[in-house]
Amino acid sequence: MQRTLSIIKPDGVASRLIGEVIRVFESAGIRIAAIKMKQLTRREAEGFYYVHKERPFFGELVEFMISGPVVLMVLEGDNVIARNREIMGATDPAEAAPGTIRARWASSKQNNIVHGSDSEESANFEINYFFSQIEIC
Ligand code: CMP
Predict the structure, then answer these.
(1) Residue 20 region by backbone torsions, left for phi larger than 0, else alpha for psi between -120 and 50, else beta
(2) What is the DSSP track for 3-45?
């Protein structure tokens, strides 16, 4: 059993896609082990995306992530890190496979509705960044 961090980003929340995205995960047999809504501070968003701090899009990414509330979730299931990435689709919605969350609803590389951890190492960091042990069921 594996865990990963999922975020419904401000564009997903503003477009009222919270229910749709959760439906996709649950229909795929993935369990929601923790969930909360939060307005990230600049400091929290910068810390979360610190691996991208040298990238040219870092400033805009942080602005976007603090532009409205997000939904933070811990997803649980077999091989859930890779499965979640498949379900989300490629970062760029133009390259995302048909039927994936990003192909269906994302509008750009930045405004791409969801985030998902890309490895076990980042899943551990990202889950612990937003959740304490007692919040995970
Ligand atoms: P995410 O999976 O959350 O990981 C890093 C985020 O940076 C990514 O989704 C996008 O929202 C954003 N991102 C990645 N590449 C680009 C890019 N080339 N231009 C703008 N934003 C990007």
Answers:
(1) alpha
(2) EEEEEE-HHHHHTT-HHHHHHHHHHTT-EEEEEEEE---HHHH
The amino acid at residue 79 is: N
Where does ligand 1 bind, in terms of residues with CB under 6 Å? 52, 57, 61, 91, 109-110, 112, 115
For residues 52-90, one letter each, b for 16 or more C-beta atoms within 10 angstroms of the residue's C-beta and e for the rest, the string is: eeeeeebeebbebbbbebbbbbbbbbeebbebbbebbbb
Question: Please, what are the domains in the chain?
Answer: 2-135 (3.30.70.141)
Query: pLDDT tens for residues 22-72?
Result: 999 999 999 999 999 999 999 999 999 999 999 999 999 999 999 999 999
> What is the token pair recorded at 64?
């976007």
Q: What is the pTM of this model?
A: 0.97
Give the total residue count for the chain: 137
- Are the beta carbons of 135 and 73 closer than 8 angstroms? no
As annotated, the active-site residues are 115
